[in-house]
Amino acid sequence: MIAYTLRRLFGAIPVVFIGITITFLIIHLAPGDPTLCFLTPTMSAGSQEIIIERFGLNNPIYVQYFKWLYRIISHFDFGNSFNSGRPASDIIFDALPSTLLLTGLSLIFGSIFGTLLGILSAIYKGTSIDRFLTTIMLFFYSMPAFWIGLMLLSLFAIKLNLLPASQLISVFHYQLSIVARIFDYVKHLILPVLTLGLAISATFYRYARTSMIESLNSDYITAAKARGIKRRKVIFTYGLRNALIPLISLLGLSIPLLFSGAVIIEVVFSLPGMGRVMVNAVLSRDYPIILAASTLAFISVTIGNMLADIAYAVADPRIRFKENYN
Amino acid sequence: MKRHISKLWHDRSSRIGLIIVGIVCICAVFAPILAPQDPFAQNLSKILKPPSLHNLLGTDFYGRDLLSRLIYGSRISLTVSIIATSIAVFIGIVTGLFAGFIGKWLDQIIMRTVDVLLGFPKLFILLLAVGFGHPSIWLTVFVLSLFSWMEIARIVRGEVIIVKEMLYVKSAIALGLSKKRILMRHIFPNVIGPIIVSTTLLIGTVILIETSLSFLGLGVQPPNASWGTILNQGRIDLVGGWWISTFTGIVVVITVVGFNLLGDGLRNIFDPKNSD
Amino acid sequence: MKKYLTLLVILTLITCDSNRDNIKRVGKIFTEKDVVDGGTLVIGINGEPETLNPLTALSQPARDVISLIFRRLADINEDLATFSPQLAKNWEFSPDSLSITFTLRTDVLWHDGVRFTSKDVVFTYNMQTDPLLAWDGISFKESITSVESKDDSTLVFHFNHKTQTMLMDAVEGYIVPEHLLKNIPANKMHEANFNRQPIGNGPFKYIKWKTQQSISLIKFDQYYKKGKPHLDRVILKVIPDNVNLFIQLLSGEVDFVEGILPRDFTRLIKDWDKGKIIIRPVSFLGRQYDFIGWNLICPDSYAEALKKSGEGKPEIDKLLKPHKLFGNQKVRAALTMAIDRETITEVVNHGMAIPMNGPIPLILWAYNEKANTVWPYNPELAKKYLREEGWRDSDGDGILDKGNTKFVFEMITNSGNIRREQALTMIQEQLRKINVEMIPRVVEPGLLYGRMLPLKNFDAALIGWNVGLKADFSPLFHSSTLFTPFHFTGFYSKKYDTLEEAAKNSTNRNTAQKYWDKIAELLSTELPYTWLYYKLECIAIHSRFKNIKFDKRGSYIQIEDWWIPKEEHTKIDKIFEE
C-alpha cells in the first residue's frame, strides 16, 4: 500500500510539471500585451519598454521560463503581480482562507446532504419518497448555480433585506463579541453556501442514487440475498460499501474546487477568494498570478486524484491487485 | 427502434423529457415562424415593460420582446451545447476505451492527460482559454468540447476495467475470443448505459456551463443571444426588470430537466441490467 | 389555481420595490455652530486598489483612497484655473516668469510623527521624473528643469519655458515621505511594502487593509487643518460588482457609492422625491466620455510602416494607405450623421449624459461648444454623402457596395461596460437604415487595448476616455505619437500639429482659447472620432452626512468637511464609538 502511494506521488510530479509548463506557454504565446494595461496616455513615450523590462518580458520566452522555474525551486518565489507588485504567493495565501471557508462548508454540506438523500432514494427506489427526492434534486441539478443565487439574493437581500448581499464579514466585524462574530459569518455565508451546496448536493445525489441502485442490483448482492442474509445487512455492509466507491472518486475530484474557488458564486455574492483573483488576473493579463494559481490548482487536483485512487484501492481490493501485477 | 420509442413514451418521466426536448428543438428549428416578434427589433417606447398580452414575457432594455428572444436564444444555446457535447462524447469514448481495454503505457498516458486537463475546475480553465482568445460562438464550442470529454473517458475506462475483471469476461478472454468480439459482445453493452447517462448529464452540464460563461461575459457575445447572454443582461436589471432573469432562468432549468429526464429514460431502456 | 397563486406570490416578492421601514430623513437646516465630530463613513468601491502609493497608482479606486491619505502642494479650485494652498502656504512667480517659489507650511506632520519639509517635495519630484518609475503624470513635469530646496520651508521650481500651466504642472502629484522611501530604487517602487502601508500627511490615516474586503482609515488627529476632519473613520468596502454595490447601498450597508448605473440612478431619484429612501442621489459633470474611433489607416500598410518607423516621416507618408472605408472624411461624416446620438445618449444613460460634438471635454476651460462643427442626425443626407462617394446597393441585398467591397465592418468595444454594449446595439440598428452593415463585437479589454488598437487592427471602436484636468491631445492626434498605442485612429495633419503646439505654448489664456477653438473645429470636421456623449457622474450618499459638496474635480475632495449630527448616528457610527 505504501509503495503504491509513493509510486503515485512520484507519478504526480511530472503531471504538475507538464501542466504548468503548458499553461506558461499558452499565456505567454496568447495574443494581447500585458504591459498595455499599465500604460496611460499621460506617461512618457519610453514607459512601455521600461515596464516590459520590469516584468522581465524582454527576454526570450525560454529564458523567462527557466528564470521563473529557478526562482520557484530555489526560493519558492512565484514572482510579483504585474498589477500590484505584491508577491504572487502572498496574494494567493490572502485569498485562500475565504475560499476554503466557502467551498469547504459547501462541499461538506453538499456531499453529506446529497449522499444521504441519494442512498435513501435508492433504498426506497420506486416509492413516492424516491420520486419526490428525484424530482427536487433534478431541478437543483438542472439549475445554473448562480441563478439559484440570484433568486435567493433578490428574495432575501433585496426584498426582505434580511441578509447581506455581499462580502464575507461586516465592516464592523472586529468590534463584535466572539458569538456575534460567528453570527456575522453565518449571516454572510448562508446564501452562498446554500447556493453552492445545493448545486454540489444535486451531483452527489445523482451519483449516490445511481451507484447504490447498481450496487443493490449487482450479482453478488443478489447472491447474498439468495443465501438468506438479512436485507439490512445486505444493504449496509455490501451494498453501501460498493456504492460509495464512485462517490469517493467524486469527492477526490471536488478537492480542486476547494482551492480554486467557485468563480461565479464569488461574483454573484461579491465574495473575496481565489475565483476573483483568477478572473482579475486573466482580465489584466497578470501572468505571475495566473501561473501561481494554476500551479496550486494542478497540485490540488493531482493530490485529489491520488487520494481518490488510494481510497478506491483501499475500498475495493480488486483494483489494488490489478495495479500490483501490472 | 420503434419498440424503444414506444417504451420511452410509456414511461411518464421520460415522456415529459421527450416532450420538453421536442418543444425546445422545434423552437430552435422553427424560430422565425414561432417567434411572435422580431427578436432584434428595438422599440424604444417599450423599454423594460413587464409581461402583458402583447409581450407575454415582457420586454428587455431595448424594448425587444423577451419571448421572441428566448425562442431565438434556443437556437444558439442548443447548437452550441449539442455540437460541443457530441465532440466531447466522441473523444471521451475513444480515449476511454483505448485506455481501459489496451491498458499499460497507453492507459498511463491517456489518464495522465486527463489528470492534466482536469487540473482546473472547468470554469477556471474555460476562463483561461476564453480570456486569452476572441470570445465567439465557435471558440465557446471548441473550448467546451475540448474540456468536457475527460469525465466520459474516465467513466468509460473505469467501466471497462471493472467489466474486464468480471468473471464472464475473464473466461471469455481465457477462452481465446478475439478482442473485437469481447469488445462488442461483453464490454460495449456494459458501457453503453453509463455513456448514455453521462452524455445526458453532459448536455445539461454544457448548457449550464455555456450559461455561466456567457453570464461572466466570456461566452456568446451580443447581439447574438444565447440564454446565458440574456441572463447576463437580465442580471443588470434584477431590480427593475425581474422578469428577464426569472423567465430565462426557468427556461434554462426546464430545458436541462428535459434532457436529464430523457437521458434517464434512455438508460432504463439500454441498460441490460434493467431491461428484462 | 393554488400553484398559480404561489408563483404569483413569489413573483410579487421579487418585483416589489425595496421599500425600507424606519426611514428617518431629517430636513433640518444646520449652521456652522451645529457641526460636531464623530461618525463613520462606509464607501462602496467597485474595485480593489492595486496600491496606495501615489507614485505607482493607476486605477480609479487607488487614486480615490490615496486622495484621503496624501496631500499636494496646492489643490485646483472648482474653476479649474486657480489654486488653493495645501502643503504650500503661498507661492510667487519670479520676475522672468521662469520659476515659482513655494513657501511651505511648517506645521505639517507625516502620520508617523515625522515633520514634513521641502526635502520631501524634492524627493517626490525626483521619483516622479525618474524614467524607471514610469510615473503616470510625467507629462505634467516636462517643462520643469529642476526643483531646488532653499531651506526646510522654501522651494523653487525652475521651468525651461513659459507656459500657461506652470503652476498646475508644479503642484501635480501627491507628496510622499522621503524618510520612508529614500532607500527604495525607482525600479523597485512598485514592489515596496509602503504601497500597502502608506504613510501620508492628509486628513485620514491608514490603519488596516483586508485584501479583497475593506480598507480602514481613521482620522489623523494632528492634521494641519485644525478641527478637521470631522468624521472619525472612513471604511472603503470593496464590492467589485455594480449590481451588488447598488443592493448594499439600498440596504444601508454602504453609505456612499460612485458610478451608479443611470437606470438605477433614475429610480433612486424617483424614490428620493417621494420620500421613500434616505439615500440622496446627486449628479454632476463627470470625467468620462464615450466616442467611436474610426481607423483611418489600412491595417496592413500600418504594419508595414511600423516596421520601418525608424526611417523618417516622408517615407511613412507614402507607406500608409487609407482604410478602405474610413480613410475618407465624407464617409465618416455620413456615418456620424446616420447615428442618432441624441437618442443613444438619452437611452443608454437615462438622460444622465450630454451629447458631445467635439474633442474638448465639457469641464475644461478650453471647451467652447460654438467652435465644434455639429453633424446633426440626418440619415437622408448621410445616404446622399455615401452615394456621392460611390457607395450603391448594386446587387439589391440591402447593403451598400462599391466595386468588390461591401460596406460591412466590425465595431468593437470592451467587455464589461454595459452602456457601450447598449450603444453598440443601437448603432447597429441605426446604420442598417442607411444600408450599412455593422457587426458589433465585444472584446476582452486586454486584447482590445493590448493588441487590436495599438496595431490598428480594427475598423471602428466604441470606447471612452477619462478626462484629465489639463487639455492635451498629443498622445491621441499629434503626428509625433503616430506609432504609440493611444494614437489608434491614425489621424495626423500638419495643421493639427501647428495648432496644438501654438495652443500649448501660448501664455495668455485668450490666445490659447483661439487655438483650442481651431483645434475643436478641425477635429470635429475631420472626425477621427465621432463623439457620442459626455457622462454625468451619478452618486448617492446617505442623508445623515452634512455639508457634502461635489463637483467635477471628484467626489472625494471634500470628505474632510463632512459631518454627521449626533441625533442621526446609526448603528455603524455607534458600534465604533464603544
| CATH homologous superfamily identity of chain B | MetI-like
Mean pLDDT across residues of chain A? 82
N-end to C-end Cα span of chain A: 15 Å
Number of helices of chain A: 13
Label the overall shape of chain B. Answer: elongated
Q: Roughly how much helix do the residues of chain B carry, as a percent range?
A: over 70%
Rg calc of chain B = 22 Å
User: At the first level of CATH, what is the class of chain B?
Assistant: Mainly Alpha
Termini of chain B, distance in Å?
17 Å
Q: Please indicate the percent range of residues of chain A in DSSP E strands (runs of 2 or more).
A: under 5%
| CATH fold-level topology of chain B | MetI-like fold
- Secondary-structure element string of chain A: HHHHHHHHHHHHH
- How many DSSP H or I helices of chain B? 12
Q: What is the count of distinct domains of chain B? A: 1
The low-confidence runs of chain B, each spanning 5 or more residues with pLDDT under 50, are none
Please give the structural blueprint.
The complex is a heterotrimer of chains A (326), B (276) and C (578).
Chain A: H1 2-29, H2 47-54, H3 61-75, H4 88-123, H5 128-142, H6 145-159, H7 178-217, H8 219-226, H9 231-260, H10 263-268, H11 274-283, H12 287-315, H13 317-325
Helix pairs in contact in A: 1-12, 4-5, 4-7, 4-9, 4-12, 5-7, 6-7, 7-9, 9-12, 11-12, 12-13
Chain B: H1 2-10, H2 12-29, H3 31-34, H4 66-102, H5 104-117, H6 122-131, H7 137-146, H8 149-165, H9 167-174, H10 179-215, H11 227-236, H12 242-270
Helix pairs in contact in B: 2-4, 2-12, 4-5, 4-7, 4-8, 4-10, 5-8, 8-10, 10-11, 10-12, 11-12
Chain C: H1 2-15, E1 40-45, H2 60-69, E2 74-76, E3 83-85, E4 88-93, E5 99-104, H3 118-128, E6 144-151, E7 154-159, H4 166-171, H5 178-181, E8 204-210, E9 214-219, E10 233-238, H6 242-250, E11 256-257, H7 262-273, E12 279-294, H8 299-307, H9 313-319, H10 329-338, H11 341-349, E13 353-355, H12 379-388, E14 401-402, E15 405-406, E16 408-414, H13 418-432, E17 437-443, H14 445-452, E18 460-466, H15 474-477, H16 494-505, H17 509-526, E19 529-542, H18 571-575
Parallel strand pairs in C: 1-10, 1-11, 16-17, 16-18
Antiparallel strand pairs in C: 2-3, 4-5, 5-7, 6-7, 8-9, 9-10, 11-19, 12-18, 12-19, 13-19, 14-15
Helix pairs in contact in C: 10-12, 11-13, 16-17
